[in-house]
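Fold this complex.
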Amino acid sequence: MKSPSFHRSPGVEMKIEICAAPFDPMQALAAHQESLTGLCGRYGATVVFIGTMRDFNEGNSVQSMMLEHYPGMTEQHLQQIVAAAEQRWEVLEVLVMHRVGMLYPNDPIVLVAVWSAHRAAAFEVCRAIVEGLKAQAPFWKKETLDDGAQRWVEKNTAG
Amino acid sequence: MAIHVKYFANLRDRLGRSEDTLPVGEGLTVATVWSRLWPDRPLPPMILTAVNQEYRGLNHPVKDGDEVAFFPPVTGG
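Structure:
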């Protein structure tokens, strides 16, 4: 789906990726920024959010986590969340990567990176995408605790 | 021709299957798709619903070939 943003420079597309295998957000960030040759000199601010799996949740030790998604709807909603944020603030580029599958503590879950001319838009859009993703994108987590018991995470933490 | 129904996460675990197919009927909505498939099981509270991968309410009409999904609150990120 093409972004309806009016601020985007020609030829630059937001990148949204669902990753079935572990990824390195620092490497992905560096590689993506290097690819932004058309934006050289235009961005003055980059804001990055990385979500990482903890080894605890709601007072229990967590051994692993299965992240499930609704293929198709997830990508479509991430596109919509990014497009909505881009309509409110002037940004140049957005990168969103989100893991699915089996994760272990310290594994990266999500990367949201935003490039803009000035910092205010980058901070606002990064926050809006992270909060929109948590509230709307169809992902679900099933935890395996240290004693082997499994439970679905019922809701995201408030912040 | 039919309605394609999907269940995700703990709802799928509780129902014991991930999808269903329902013959098309007159005046179907998201709510009646559920009640025809699960006549003895009220739709659990908090369940979210989508038609063709967009969030839609229980009264949203459902037509031939639509994909209807039922799932619990999302917990990504």
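The beta strands of chain A are 15-19, 45-52, 56-57, 60-69, 93-99, 101-103, 108-116, 139-145, 150-152.
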